[in-house]
Amino acid sequence: MMWFLAQEEAKPVLGLFVEGTIVDIIVVLLLGILIWVMVSRARTGRPIPEIKKIAGLEAIDEAIGRATEMGRPVTFIPGILSVSNAQTLAAFGVASHVARQCARYDTRLLVLTCDPLPYAVLEEITRQSYLEEGRPDAFNPDDVRFLSAEQFAFASAVIGVYERERPAANIMIGAFYAESMIFAETASFQGMISIGGTAHTHQLPFFVAACDYALIGEEIYAASAYLSKEPVLYGTVVGQDILKILVWIIILIGGIVATVNPETTFGKLFEF
Questions:
Q1: Number of domains the chain is built from
Q2: Does any domain span residue 32?
Q3: 195 lies in the same domain as 63
């Protein structure tokens, strides 16, 4: 407590900014400019850098095609958290693409959820995807299922669906915990093509080990832009990636300067 009271109050810089936040403000402004430029170019059809190939996303159409050839369904699981989690929101974009492809190929899609809110959202996403593909009659609301809000009750219910429905492709994108290995291993035993993606670092090793394809970390957040090629989404991802490259260059230069001349603090270059 005494340490906290001993700290000096932050002093404004240029009468506007809290000391130490100038670099943050510059980064935010630069990000906004980059995103605006990339989105504008994408909307007008001008060339912009492409997002690198992501094998797990490229494999989604292959997995759905295999299920179509075998006459067996596809399962999609958006994790076990609610819509307040960014990974669940990222899963919605992938679900839309999967539903479109299933509607196009007349392949049965089973969406399995653990929370009432994602269940309601995914039902509408799936319905709309079938409608946009001109197949509203093929949509079956019973195939979008809320199984249980309890983690391992949900896991047991998913395994039951695997055993009864015998899907040929298993797509899992979102926030997963201990149930991730259960899903991935069971899918592997049954010969499914499994595509798993999460930003939870403590679950990524299980997806990498047991799934045919794994999306690592922020790849799931870029998935919607990658699959849809929607200009606003695509331009936003490209703008963010360009800024990351610039930050890496600055860090590299700063490391070199600090190594060559330890008396120089690279951060002073940004002080006013």
A1: 2
A2: no
A3: yes
**Pair 207, 249 in one domain:** no
The residue range of the domain holding 239 is: 230-254+265-272
Do 194 and 245 reside in the same domain of the chain? no
In a shared domain, residues 159 and 242 = no
Q: What pTM was computed for the model?
A: 0.80
Report strand pairing: 193-198 vs 169-175.
Answer: parallel
What is the rounded CA–CA span in Å between residue 146 and residue 149? 8
pLDDT in tens, 108-145: 999 999 999 999 999 999 999 999 999 999 999 999 99
Mean pLDDT of 58-86: 92
CA distances from 31 to 37, 90, 133 (A): 10, 21, 36
- How, if at all, do strands 144-146 and 74-79 pair? unpaired
CA dist 195 to 172, 176, 214, Å?
Answer: 6, 13, 6
Residue 59 CB contacts under 8 Å (≥ 6 apart), including other chains? 193, 195, 212, 213
